[in-house]
Amino acid sequence: MKNFKLMATMGAGMESLVARELKEMGYATETENGRVFFDGTVEDIYRTNLWLRVADRIKIVVQEFDAKTFDQLFEKTKAFPWEDLLPYDANFPVNGRSKHSILHSVPTVQAITKKAIVKRLSEAYHAHSYLPETGQRYVLETAIDKNHVMITLDTTGDSLFKRGYRTEKGGAPLKETMAAALVKLAHWFTDNPFVDPTAGSGTIAIEAALIGRNIAPGLNREFDITDWDWFDKNIGQTLKAQARSMINFDEPLDITGYDIDENMIEIAQANAEAAGVGEDVTFKQLAAADWSTDKINGVLVANPPYGERLGDEDAARQLYSQMGYIYNKMPTWSKYILTSDEEFETAFGKKATKKRKLYNGALKVDLYQYWGKKIRN
């Protein structure tokens, strides 16, 4: 089976999490900003699309070369046997990016790449007119950095954060990949309670349940590669059947999500049902300021409303102050709170054990971590 150079892409600040996921799956990795490289077969492409929780996409690195002129870009692109990847009727849009390079015009880079591939395919398929492009989707990207060209083929399609379980969203939804990253960063063990006091549409608690049950995040969806003529659909069916057999139905889970809005509780419950974890997460209507617990050794992960996100900075800081008053009386609990407010620690009333910079879309946010001192039951 052919081996490909593969690339997982992810949000800034999440590279180490994706690299760890891949290493746990048995792959050797190489990490750069926003991407992690590894090698694999078509089976590995499908497996990583199915199982990676924090990555956005899996791409095949088709070509790499240096180019300082558009003639070089055209000729080197055309030299690749594109007919091995793209059928006669392939629908292949070409995206582009360029930085610190002589070939800085992105529209021209896209047009030249497209023209070179069309020329190659026309010759390979003896086409005397336009290629139809009426078939399956093969999304390409030409990225140039310091005159080094990398042409990639996206195997994923809709981003991996689209798990397929979201029936409705809240006012400022957190992507599923980001929610999974927060659960991973919290180092939660399934024998400890897990709480999201500002649950919204339930994404963080649902991702925790998927992890706790060992449910593959891509189990309820498909990927672009599934429809390609050189992909054996039996591979996908086999890997999904294997994933279903690996679900852990026996582990007792204690996962709770709270929200002040009754409508959001209904949405969260519906999303949990759609994700197959409806019985594993308990959602209740309750203001974050009214929550307390007698349980010990828990993990709390929250994405509370913050000024830039929902427009009321004073109300957000009042909430942080109330959270600090409650949570600082819970020494055995570890607390992980995501916000873009750089004055969070002042409002919360305590300096974080550790702070980690992440990006929620284009918005820079910090994950404030307060590590609990666990005690034995």
UniProtKB/TrEMBL annotation:
<dbReference type="Pfam" id="PF22020">
    <property type="entry name" value="RlmL_1st"/>
</dbReference>
<dbReference type="GO" id="GO:0032259">
    <property type="term" value="P:methylation"/>
</dbReference>
<dbReference type="Pfam" id="PF01170">
    <property type="entry name" value="UPF0020"/>
</dbReference>
<protein>
    <submittedName>
        <fullName>Class I SAM-dependent RNA methyltransferase</fullName>
    </submittedName>
</protein>
<dbReference type="InterPro" id="IPR054170">
    <property type="entry name" value="RlmL_1st"/>
</dbReference>
<dbReference type="InterPro" id="IPR004114">
    <property type="entry name" value="THUMP_dom"/>
</dbReference>
<dbReference type="Pfam" id="PF02926">
    <property type="entry name" value="THUMP"/>
</dbReference>
<feature type="domain" description="THUMP">
    <location>
        <begin position="57"/>
        <end position="155"/>
    </location>
</feature>
<keyword id="KW-0808">Transferase</keyword>
<keyword id="KW-0489">Methyltransferase</keyword>
<dbReference type="GO" id="GO:0008168">
    <property type="term" value="F:methyltransferase activity"/>
</dbReference>
<dbReference type="InterPro" id="IPR029063">
    <property type="entry name" value="SAM-dependent_MTases_sf"/>
</dbReference>
<dbReference type="InterPro" id="IPR002052">
    <property type="entry name" value="DNA_methylase_N6_adenine_CS"/>
</dbReference>
<dbReference type="InterPro" id="IPR000241">
    <property type="entry name" value="RlmKL-like_Mtase"/>
</dbReference>
